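quick one before i forget lol
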Amino acid sequence: MTIRRDLLIGALGSVLVCLGSFGVGDPPRNWTVLTDLGISWITYGHGKNVSGVLFWAGVFCMVFAWVRLGRGLLRAARRPDGGDDAPPAPGTRTLQRWLLAWAAPLLVAAPVYSRDVYAYLAQGAVFGAGFDPYADGPAHNPGPLVDSMATVWATTTAPYGPFTMGLFRVVTDVTGDHVVLGVLAIRLVLLPGLFLSLWAIPRLAAHFGASPQTGLWLALFNPMVLIHIVAGPHVEMLMMGVLATGLALVVAGRHAWGTAVLAMAVSIKITAGVAVPFVLWIWLSHIRSRRPVTPRDVVGVFAAIVAISLAVFGFWTLVVGLGVGWLTGLGWADVIINWFTIPTLVAHVVTLVAAPFVALNLQPVLEITRAIGSAVLALVLVALWWRKRHDERTAVAGIAWAMLAVLVLEPSTLPWYYTWVLVVAVAFTLPRWTYATVVGASTFLLIVFQPDDAIVFYKPFELVLAFALAGLAAWSLVRPDPLRLGRFGRWAWGAEDAAGTPAGATGQKA
């Protein structure tokens, strides 16, 4: 009953996020619908303050419910029968249905935290207008779609794979310059990724003996993930589902199909390509479980992976007809500057430490630190690939570590990129402190990035507040009543069972 209540609180939070998004999110520019309905007041003055209260109350409810749900699931995972002080965990199907309940309101919310969805539409429209989105920016096709996207990307080229660009074009061929219909259509065509994640995550977790319910909690109930990929929305919603499905198929022994699906993920976003080389070790480990591996096996498996990947990626490249121009678009990530990657953080520290002695411009320092970061990343990826060659478990762990290395060593990173790691990490039973770290980092990213696409991680007060709230959320996962609020605190942090017995009262540590 307690876990059901947590799930209801999270669903309510999602509704509040949806309602508040229209006042504090990223609605289309020059959009007159709210004015026509007589409710434009929610976007300014006291009306915007009310919208902000609704939005952040919703975020709080979702994080609150997520932490409580996590405490319940992790406690139940240690005592699958429920024990004396922990209710049994809800089944996987129950959680899958509740996840859809959390996601549903976000499907009709105004875009939040980013204007990328308008860039998707503008890139599809410029493609449909006869331009090459890998060579020509959306500004070549002015209109309401370009007006609504972030100006910084108006002249940049698309970094997405051929399948994604074809998908964007299909959407804009149908919706034209209608921005709202375009946003809803983008969400609908990305939504299969969420269903694929719901299918693949439990299977990936179960294959390695991890809890399917905990996997769903970690990667999908995570408010940072759900709000960004659904309400954002972002291509990662589709990519993470296809990536997880490909991995689930590969570890299940359906190597050719799994490799084809992973190549499909690469055609969505090139980052998924990090996973493909590790398929070699998984495939060979399955052969090794039946008989000794021969050099002929190694050559044959390697050739099959290369052939399947090239065939799938080449197929979509030929169908869409844009070639491999996406390579040039990858460099535009350098435009994003935040200290969430090591190279950018080091550049900030260098300029700060040098400030009393010499005035260093950040940009030249960034060029050096990012070049070093890219070189280190290449070495780390190769080292991980070789060191994680022993069996399928270490190979999948290698994929997770490789994705994390990309996140921390690439020129820039954004909150929704962390889906690349989380969707693979579900395969393992992680230490409690790791789950707490994910909770803290997710909460922090929900705060320092703002729903209207603003950022506060260069504002000291807001930054300290974000760290404090993130730390509280993380601590709440591992300790009941961290603020020592007594009985209310034990209830709020999920430290009591349905009968009101404090966790740990029967001798079990919460």
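fyi The chain has 22 helices and no strands.
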